Amino acid sequence: MARIIVCVDMDAFFASVEQRDNPALRGKPIAITGAGERTVITTSSYEARVYGVKTGMTIYKAKRLCPHIIFVTGDNRKYTQVCRRLEEICLRFTPDIEIYSIDEVFLDITGSHHLSGGPENLARTIKDTVKNELGITCTVGMGPNILIAKLASDLAKPDGFKWIGEDTVASVFETLPVKKLWGIGSHTEEKLRAMGITTCGALGRAPLSLLTKKFGIIGERLKAMGNGKLERPLEIAPPEPKSIGHSITLPKDIWKLEEITSCLLRLSEKVGRRARRYGHKGRKITLTVRYADFKTFTKQIALSVHTNDTGEIYRYAVAILDGIHLRKSVRLLGISLSCLGKDGDQMLLFQETDREKKAALAKAVDTVNDKFGEHTITFASIMTREEGPGVISPAWRPSGVRNSDV
Q1: 3-state secondary structure of 209
Q2: What's the whole-number mean pLDDT along residues 121-149?
Q3: Dist CA 111 CA 309 (whole Å)
Q4: Cα 206 from chain centroid (whole Å)
Q5: Strands 296-307 and 280-291: what pairing?
């Protein structure tokens, strides 16, 4: 039985939610940003995209392109709530879904579409349900694998529907620019163009030896993609994380040690709390520093034992910092915990060590914060630090370890 994959992609998601909730914004060019002056645009409405306003653009450049644009500070909790409702809607049609990002879901309807009157009827029912229950539109693409379903949704945007069947892939791909394919970025596109390959049809016909010579083993994947093939199953169960991290772009550049360490403590608390919540410990801690001129570097330290203790994560992060001669003021800081293992959380039969006492204390603090809200109990040195809403991480998911605080 041929597989049928559906891609449900929300249209200008954050902007659409804001226009739904504020009638004064409807039909106008708006851009969603984080808090503060240093933020970038996370999503722009289609009215703003006409002027060239794009995701990742600075607010200053967006203002130059569209002088009458309206900036709206994003409400991450509202967007994540809508994502959870989208997940609930998709699960009505099949249990086999993958939340790929906060605004995009893949569904395998191979064995369930007959319950909804066939593939096309199911896809249109999803579109109608999303619009009626969430008050915003989505685009639905359908194909024999994730690559084609994603392409179909991109080609049909906004508020569209497109089904690219196996029998039509070759004709669609013949003149389709390679940059339209999911996973082919500007760097790869430039390399392919230098080889005389600009369309998917040409990519599919290119000798495998030529592609592997240029790209190595990735060349095999590129040739398969040029023929509309991608053997990637849906990740129905959230994959085990390789790392747990948090970063923050600071409201203003900082250089004083006490300011930097205070920020590191807050980040350590976020990383440790999320690791404990989902039963992970790590043996490597990475510190990321970005200077005011955007130069970025990372330093790591390997531990002798696994940990998810906030205090230990913080101390090792500070130890890394102590080994760095900061040349300029700091714009961004990040901490991540990697080389993860599961936390056994075993009960001890005999006297507790200091490590177990710290773990018990952390668990008690987490329990209070779970019940009464984040930072109900926290470190005194960071109690006065207020953080506005930032840009939501692309890695956010409605469940599992990627469900971080927003």
Answers
A1: helix
A2: 97
A3: 45
A4: 33
A5: antiparallel
Euclidean distance between CA atoms 183 and 202, whole angstroms: 17
Q: Cα separations (Å) of 100 from 9, 83, 148?
A: 10, 11, 15
Q: What does the pLDDT look like over 295-304, one tens digit per residue? A: 999 999 999 9
Q: How many other C-beta atoms can be found within 10 angstroms of the C-beta atom of residue 59?
A: 17
Which residues does the annotation mark as catalytic? 104
In sequence order, which ranges of 45-139 are alpha helices (DSSP H)?
46-49, 59-65, 76-91, 119-134
Q: In this predicted structure, which of 79-83, 172-176, 347-351, 392-396 has the lowest mean pLDDT? A: 347-351
Q: Tell me: the pLDDT tens digits for 340-369?
A: 998 765 444 445 566 566 665 566 555 655
In the block, which residue shows the tokens 């006065």? 384
**pLDDT band at residue 372 under the 50/70/90 scheme:** very low
Phi, psi (deg, nearest 5) at residue 369: -70, -30
**Where does the pLDDT of residue 48 fall: very low under 50, low under 70, confident under 90, or very high at 90 and above?**
very high
pLDDT more than 90, % of the chain: 75
Helical segments of 237-283, H only: 257-277
- Cα gap 6→4, rounded to integer Å: 7
CATH number of 169-226: 1.10.150.20
Long-range CB pairs of 83-91 (<8 Å, 24+ gap) are: 83/398, 84/398, 85/133, 85/134, 86/8, 86/10, 86/130, 86/134, 87/398, 89/126, 89/129, 89/130, 89/133, 89/134, 90/8, 90/126
Measure the CA–CA gap between 258 and 267, rounded to whole angstroms.
14
Classify burial at 5, counting beta carbons within 10 Å of its beta carbon; exposed 0-12, middle 13-18, buried 19 or more. Answer: buried
Average pLDDT over residues 23-27: 97
Contact 49, 55 (CB under 8 A): no
Average the pLDDT over each of 12-26, 36-50, 75-89 and give the range with the smallest value. 36-50
The hierarchical CATH code for the domain 243-382 is 3.30.1490.100
What are the boundaries of each domain within the chain? 169-226, 243-382
User: CB within 8 A of 243, min separation 6: which ones?
Assistant: 282, 286, 336, 337, 338, 340
Q: Is the pLDDT of residue 395 over 70?
A: no
Reference 285, options 311, 262, 259; nearest CA is 311
Q: How far apart are CA 176 and CA 197, in angstroms?
A: 11
Q: Two tokens at 61?
A: 């450049």
